[in-house]
Amino acid sequence: MTRLTVNNEAVEYRMPPETPLLWALRDASNLTGTKYGCGTGSCGACTVDVDGRAVRSCQLTIAAAEGAFVTTIEGLSRDRAHPVQLALIAGNVPQCGYCIPGITMAAAALLKRDPMPSDAAIRAAITNICRCGIYPRLIEAIQRAGRAVRGDERLPAAPRPGIEPAEAARMVPALDPQQR
């Protein structure tokens, strides 16, 4: 049995020690914000923070993570109030959103180490692949998040997640029975 701390909670995984951390997080802990992308560590969709470092969780076994402190996108900020999340939203960076949790975790780890990263430092640290091509806006958003971390800029609050079903129903115009 492997013990680690996930999102500030002690966890004991009763899985084979060679199980990738990605699958322990997704399958055993139901933390599905960490995405499976390539399974080879190339794309970065599965990036989580392990002891302050951005790590591709598909490449780290739970045995190798024994005793580690792991933070997933769910543990970064439940209300999307982390500066990286706010800056990404404010900069209209997310498109399809699949890569965003991994990118967010990589950027948060970078800003922990270096709250004033250069463009080159951002490019070196954020090697995640985004098929939507968000890179130009991403660099500015990470710099903006760094300014927020340093206290040089205040970011607008993120809109609340989700939408109430009744509100969604009001937004869709009713069809005339003759038009069906």
From TrEMBL:
It comes from Sphingomonas endophytica. One of its GO terms (molecular function) is 2 iron, 2 sulfur cluster binding. Residues 1-76 form the 2Fe-2S ferredoxin-type domain. This is Isoquinoline 1-oxidoreductase. PROSITE patterns: 2FE2S_FER_1 (PS00197), 2FE2S_FER_2 (PS51085). Residues 153-180 are annotated as: Disordered. It holds the Pfam family Fer2_2. Keywords: 2Fe-2S, Iron, Iron-sulfur, Metal-binding, Oxidoreductase. PANTHER family: BLR6218 PROTEIN, OXIDOREDUCTASE WITH IRON-SULFUR SUBUNIT.
